[in-house]
């Protein structure tokens, strides 16, 4: 994304300083606005969203820290960089603790200024590859990830099934200081609870039947890295206690051992379950809930960001495309996809497009290629049912090769001798159909022998 598509609000009570910064950043292609005070900046951010706020620390009236607190309270995803006089190290620490993404020392150096801004905003641009979407909810999510990634605090990702919680966890790791270390995923609902303790914390040889050798748990394996605990609401109460200790003390014990092992792991947890209700029902520990919920991130359902559907469709169809031809979609079909509520969210959209691309006879997906539940929701007439087929053997019998040859000819003629499409009709791979065409010596009059698709 080019700088012209990123906006920066400059906040400084010295007009000369504002004018200089405005001139430098505008010349670099950024969209800029200026405010003479924290109070004015707050009014402007309520009327317009800025990708980044660049504010002086000491100003008449409210300070830059006051502005940072107010901006973060209104929108935790807002990116803020502070400018401060040399030696204000305690103020810098407080700013970073409150959520500033970086700071600049005065007097400002032009190259340092541009480098810090480029670094902050280029990381935001990079998130566009991790998480597809340009809608306001997605832009807020990406900025939140960028701010949270630099921290070691535990993150709790909430959202409906299929919204992309693991993608968020991976983005947090990829943009963190731990990116060079390991990222491990544990689905707490997919592992038998009797084995999950060993999976997370490890075990000693002979700790239980089948423990023929010692094993490191994932907390040890992920040391200095990130551990993603998906479906955290499925943990039993006993495991919740061990997890709480690992988070609070940074130490684990293998099953069958009394030895304490120190670990340095950043935990990202995720769930679509109502943890607050589970706490009230005493099926989820209240202390663990608060320890996990240090930084909550909520993923919006797809129905709340319908403007992102065209981008998602383009992305998923590009993944399905093979060879020189790329799948596209008709405007009518895209309109139906945008109107659908997507109870399964992004995962359901990707699955629907995979199915449509597989069954589509050409390279353009139309209404007739959409899954029946989506067509029905749009009030479209159901596609005609495929006629049942039953081959009746003639009394005198028939060669199987003759039947095979006849079906291949029909498929090739139906697709105008397009081997890829004919293979789909017959449920064969391209190579298998190519072999059979050669076997029967079949080719359209005037055609060269069949060959690989370009």
UniProtKB/TrEMBL annotation:
The keyword Nucleotide-binding applies. Coiled coil: none annotated. It holds the Pfam family HTH_8. The modification 4-aspartylphosphate is found at residue 56. Keywords: ATP-binding, Nucleotide-binding, Phosphoprotein, Transcription, Transcription regulation. Residues 7-121 form the Response regulatory domain. Residues 131-358 form the Sigma-54 factor interaction domain. It comes from the Bacteria. PROSITE patterns: RESPONSE_REGULATORY, SIGMA54_INTERACT_1, SIGMA54_INTERACT_4. This is Sigma-54-dependent Fis family transcriptional regulator.
